[in-house]
Amino acid sequence: MITGYNTDIRHDDVVFHVQTEDKGLSNPQIETLVYVGGRVLAARRSGYADLLAEGHGEKEIVALMEVQHRKTIAAIRSGKLDEKFRQSGGATTGSQPVPVVPKAAKGASTEVRPPAEVPIGNSDRSLDQVILDYLTCEADQEQLVLMVDGEAQLGLGRQAVLGVRTSSSKDGAAVPQAQVAVKMISTVAEPRTLVSGRTDEEGFLQLSFTIPQLERGTAALIVVADSEIGTAEIKHLL
User: Fold this and answer.
1) 3-class SS at 178?
2) Is the confidence at residue 133, as pLDDT, over 60?
3) Res. 97: pLDDT tops 60
4) Which of helix, strand or coil describes residue 8?
């Protein structure tokens, strides 16, 4: 199963939480859920069994995930979910983001069946069309790009040093003063922030910290960056 994406989007003073994940080779689907106030507002699912049959692998699946995630964000920003939000009762999250929902332990089922699907396009497209949509979306929407070096050394009970870079998807320019935090979530403890800081004028930040040991359960690290042009995060399963 491939690591997914989680993004908070503020639109008309409402925080929409967009979560995209791969359901795994046994259920080859990419699922995007949109949460408002902890409730599922809408969803989008796309199958990729045809990609597997054609011999494609993780790289192509990740491309599909990112396209679907970004197109959902674009749909929110363009107001395509406004009517659905009003029909749901209009409960807002105020200034508080929706918490990240950790992946369930292996064998557990936490799948939520939402009432409707996000209208973000037809999934019956070739990979070339998907890539074109992705590039078009990238050109239209400035996003915060988060890059992390040092993930190979991450493990429970280990010392870690991460190099973090923040830049703009428009022109690749550095994004300084982005607030970065490394958070640990697990199935046995409350979420905690291990270290935080701000990127320098070159958009760079080095973070040194210790990853706690767990006697049981599963855990993940989430590197979150917040800036004037948006929020980005990377999740690493431990």
Assistant:
1) coil
2) no
3) no
4) strand
The DSSP secondary-structure symbol of 171 reads T
CA–CA–CA angle 224, 220, 118 (5° rounding): 65
Name the DSSP letter for residue 152. G
Write the burial class of residue 71 (CB in 10 Å: 0-12 exposed, 13-18 middle, 19+ buried): buried
> Could you identify the residue written with the tokens 């918490």?
99
Q: Are 196 and 182 in contact (CB under 8 A)?
A: yes
pLDDT score, position 145:
84
User: 42-51, 119-128, 190-199, 218-227: which has the minimum mean pLDDT?
Assistant: 119-128
Using only the alpha carbons of the chain, give its radius of gyration: 18
Q: pLDDT band for position 178 (50/70/90)?
A: very high
Give the CA count within 13 Å in the CB-facing half-sphere of 67: 25
